[in-house]
Specification:
32% helix, 22% strand, globular
């Protein structure tokens, strides 16, 4: 899967947004508003790109912590990825509710 295919899927199907000022070969996805501050970040996914603009990794930002990174096993189907992202968004919502 290419970064363009994945971006189209994430932005159109799951309504995720990227930070327009982010540079480099990776993109970070957010549900709606982009918040980078550590205490209130809304990051959902961090997607890395390798050779020929193919996705090299998809990191689950909510499931990861300072010591451990959680990655989506590639290759992944669109249906599987949709469920994984939905779970990650649900986890973020739950964490927010617990922290208030």
């Amino acid at each position: 899967m290419t970064i363009d295919e994945l971006h189209t899927f994430l932005s159109s199907t799951l309504d995720l947004a990227t930070n327009p000022v982010e540079r480099g070969s990776a993109l970070t996805y957010f549900p709606g508003n982009v918040v980078w501050h550590p205490s209130g970040t809304t990051r959902i996914l961090h997607v890395g790109c390798g050779v020929n603009h193919h996705v090299s990794h998809i990191k689950l930002c909510v499931s990861s912590d300072n010591n451990n990174s959680v990655f989506v096993r590639l290759p992944v189907t669109w249906l599987e990825l949709e469920q994984i992202v939905a779970n990650e968004i649900s986890l973020q919502v739950r964490n927010r509710l617990l922290s208030t």
